Amino acid sequence: MGVTERRAVQRRLAELGDRLDERIVAALQREVPAYAAISAAQLAETRAITAWAVRRLIEMWVEETALTAADRQRFRGIGVARATDGRPLFAVLRAYRVAAVQISDLVIDLAGGELAIDDVAVLHRTLLTSVDELSESLFAGYTSAIEQLGNDRARMLAGLADDLLTGRQTSAAVLADRAAQLGITIPAALTLAVFAPQAPGVALSEGDVADLASSIGGQPTDVLHTRRGGQGVLLAAAVPDLAPQLTFRRWRACVIRDLSPAAVPAGFGLAAAAVGHAPDEAYAASPVLDRGDAMLVALLRGRPTVDPAELAGVALGPVAEAENAHLLEGLQAYLRFGSSTEAAAALGLHPQTMRHRLRRITALSGRDVHRSWDRLMLDAARTALALRTSRP
């Protein structure tokens, strides 16, 4: 075994110049799919790293030394860079194993039988040990970067949700650019959900909000989520029925659908006030309030401002249409007399006919006159409708 023979091989490798780097890079692109279609800039970076890594590994073989702290720190930085550009960790680690095989083959080819068995043994031991150590550094850098990127991404997504809720930077162009940067799509119509614990004075944590978001979204980016004033907020293209999730957690919510991005701030103000101030009676049928419930709470509180005529349309739905005038007539009579029998008598109907009309009202509006909150909602809505139609 001799240092002289190893140095001779080292000189021959140096004489190959760029051809050495190209051979190894070609092997990486051939054997590691993630490297097959990298950009020109990434390819140039790969060549530069290859040239440095080969030189260091051969130096360690010739001198029988090991990776230095500076070497390990550089490989850690390479791991960070690979996480940032999105190359899979397993592909990065495999690339170094492929390179090690190429280096071994090149050394044996260039030695021409001049190396002793001990020289070859030291070469393989150097390569194996170095690949193991540099893999640890790559792994450490990669995983730390992924964690940081994940935290940064989570903050950016929460920031986007906050901006939508407050109306900052909600022009179509700005939203499209921010969404593209985050790899998501912001739909033209959003569903907003605001939720909080039933128990007063209990605030939700970021983990609570993220947990509910992940339980209803197919992908982590399907649902934007954030916290505002102790309440959790979700924004998504669609939100499924939250009642089972909320009942299990002992939370309450208000869900408002079909909001344009520009309408989200007003919708949020309405929903947040509803969750914060709706009486227990509002939740008699479900832990989830809707737009009509939120509008009634606002009307009773005096803020945020709502249009009574809009409340009438939302609460009554198809009941307010001309073709259902008989249902509206039945509703007015029932709310006046408080009894289907008396209402039927006042209208000259059979009580069973009146009860049928009340069932149709429930089916069309989603409100049941036998529940106090729904009855208040329907009364406010039909009164607002009557006042609107009576204007000169």
TrEMBL record:
Start and end residues of each RsbT co-antagonist protein RsbRD N-terminal domain: 21-155
UniProt-listed InterPro entries: CdaR-like_regulators (IPR051448), PucR_C-HTH_dom (IPR025736), PucR_C-HTH_sf (IPR042070), RsbRD_N_dom (IPR025751)
One Pfam family this sequence matches: RsbRD_N
Ranges for domain PucR C-terminal helix-turn-helix: 327-381
PANTHER family the UniProt entry points to: CARBOHYDRATE DIACID REGULATOR (PTHR33744), PUCR FAMILY TRANSCRIPTIONAL REGULATOR (PTHR33744:SF7)
Protein name as annotated: PucR family transcriptional regulator
Species for this entry: Allocatelliglobosispora scoriae
Lineage: Bacteria, Bacillati, Actinomycetota, Actinomycetes, Micromonosporales
